[in-house]
Structures are given as C-alpha cells and as structure tokens.
Amino acid sequence: xxxxxxxxxxxxxxxxxxxxxxxxxxxxxxxxxxxxxxxxxxxxxxxxxxxxxxxxxxxxxxxxxxxxxxxxxxxxxxxxxxxxxxxxxxxxxxxxxxxxxxxxxxxxxxxxxxxxxxxxxxxxxxxxx
Length: 129
Fold this sequence. Notes:
By secondary structure, this protein is an all-alpha fold. It has a domain at 22-110. 60% of the residues lie in helices and 0% in strands. The chain has helices spanning 5-18, 26-48, 56-84, 100-110. Helix 2 (26-48) packs antiparallel against helix 3. It is globular, with a radius of gyration of 16 Å.
C-alpha cells in the first residue's frame, strides 16, 4: 500500500524536524525555523508569565523538555540545509556558540542550494531513500 495521506504527512514532519539525512530548501528551512521560534516563544512566555499565564502549570512541567526537543529540531533542519548547499552537518555545531549562532542561521538560510542531486540526496524537500 502506498504511503499517502496523513501517514505520509506525519512521516514528512518527523523527517523534517527529527531526521538528519537529506536536503531542504531555503523556504522550508525558514518556515520550520520560524515555527520553532514561535513554539518556544509561547512556552517561555507562559513560564515567564507566572501564575497568571493560562497554561503556566503545563508550560512549567513540559517546557524544559520542549525547549530541548526544539534545540534538536533546529539542529536537524540546519543539518539538512547544510546538506542542500553541499556542506557536511558537522558545521551545525555553530548553533551552540553564542552570537555565532545568529550569523550561522542567517548564512545557512540565505545561501542558495546546489542545483540537482549532490552527495546528500536527490532533491531538496523530499524524504531520503
């Protein structure tokens, strides 16, 4: 049975945010990055809002785990973006260096990807084989 519908979509999201293989385009990189920023902003805003935050108890409990998970997701999308421009994923370690991480995020998000297949995959935004 072909992989289609909700199952395929779920696989794409899991690959995008948790996979370290393949390539993604600039557009997908920025959309995923902005989603992660928005998610962290909501959680951190609830935690900083204290007892007046409507989801404070949930954010206080789940927040630290969610922030760690989104750090990994950010690493994952950066690795795939590096693959699209022809670099190995090891450079994504720059995300953990204060101040360098901002320049790295912009650099990776602005460089155009390689045309056609490269050593990391056939085309951006497709699940690796």
